[in-house]
Structures are given as structure tokens and as C-alpha cells.
Amino acid sequence: MFISNKFIKSVLFAFVASTSISYAETTTWNFNAGSAGYDVDNSGNVFGNQLSIDSDNDGTAELTIQAWANTGCGWGCGNDNDLGQGYATTNSYGLLNYNLDTPSGSLTGEQHVIDNGDGDTDMMLFSFLESTALTSIDIGWFGGDSDVSIVAFSSLPTLLGNTWSDIATQSIFSASFSNLGTGPYALANEVSGIVVEAQYWLIGAYSSIFGDSGANDNNTDAFKIASITTQTSITPPPDNTVVTEPSTIAMFASFGLFLMWRRKKAA
Question: Within a 13 Å sphere around the CA of 130, how many CA atoms are in the beta-carbon half?
Fold first, then answer.
């Protein structure tokens, strides 16, 4: 039996296509006030607010953002290990987080960055309409250090009253990254070979609860998020994983053995 090179190539192409993830759309979400190209709507100038982005103006927000930190309910109130919702807003450098320990509960002042100083770890919750892969993050400003923790969830996490340790048990993926600096940072540089898609993401100041950043320092991390870039796949990978290299090699080997058997049978 004769098997043409054209047939072999077509089978290999189909095989590679079946084990690859094709992405339908790449989106960069800009948070710099006045330069985003679309409005970042604010539900209110109060703690517990929500930012939202409706980029195509169809009345449905594709992305909503909240500010959270382990502050309890503020100064002298509750357990500081428990999470409370802060105030999310933007300026020319990007997203800001006023947590409930902001002095005098004021929405002005110096403690508006996303940081992990004074025993509080600030994070921003990003909620998308559909599962999406987070591919890069752009830090618009940082002071001191810029270690970042990122956490993914398949369902909306229960934050209020829980601890960051509780939240880690709800996640499908978490990782920490050291010294991002300013400008775009491609997360694939650090998470090579791992594809994670999730509808809900936490991005914030470094916490060892979500993985060791490798920075080996005790510097306070403080920054503002200028933008994030996401990709939405046509066919999401099963269980948020991709085919690993050993599995791919094994499948190619099996295909090769099949061709040898057919040729021997035809001889």
C-alpha cells in the first residue's frame, strides 16, 4: 500500500491543529485615565464601588474591577486578616486601590497604590464575561519594588470576610513574579508551557501565599496597573491545561509505528 507524502503531511497538520490552542481575540485593557480609548465607568465615589468597561457601548460591561485588601472593616474594626472591599479608581498611571485602612477613610492621600505595606496586601479583582487567558501586565508606576501575585478562579471567589489563605484554596492557578518594573511584562516568559483560562482574576501586590516570587527581599511592593492584555480562545483547553511535550512525542511515535505496520502489511 502506497502512502503519499501529501497524505502524511495532511494527517500531521490535522494532529498538530487538534493539539494546539487557537485564539480568537487579543485585547489590551487600558486603565490610564483619559487615554484608554473608552470610558472606565465608576459605580460611585465610595468604598465598595466597582469600575466597569463597556468598550462597544452595547450596555453590557465586558470587564468589572473591584479593590480588595486584608483590612477587616477598617481601622480598629474586625480582624486584619479578613478581607474587606476598598475603593477602586484610576489616574494617569493606571488602577489605584484605596483600602479600608486609608487614614481617616479619605479617598485622597498617599495610600492609594496597590501595595503590601503596613500588613495589608492590596489586590484588584478582574471579572470578565467569559473565560480568558491573561498574557501580560503593564505597570504604569511603581515605588520601592514591583513584585506581583496573580490568582485565577473558574467561579467568582468568596472574598468578604475570608483570608488570602482561604482564597488560595478556591483558585485554579496562582503565581508570583519579581521586579516587573514599568512597561509591558509578558507572563508567558515566566509560565512557559502553561495555558490558564479563567473568568475571574486577582492581580495585586506580592503575597507568598500565592507563590514565591523569587525576589528574596522584604521590600514593600507598590505599583499602579496601566493595562493588562488577555486572549480568548476559540476552543478552551480541557481542565485549563495543554498537551504536554511527552504526550505529544508519544502520539507522534504511535503514528509512526502505525505507518510502519501499514507498509509492512502492504509488502
Answer: 11
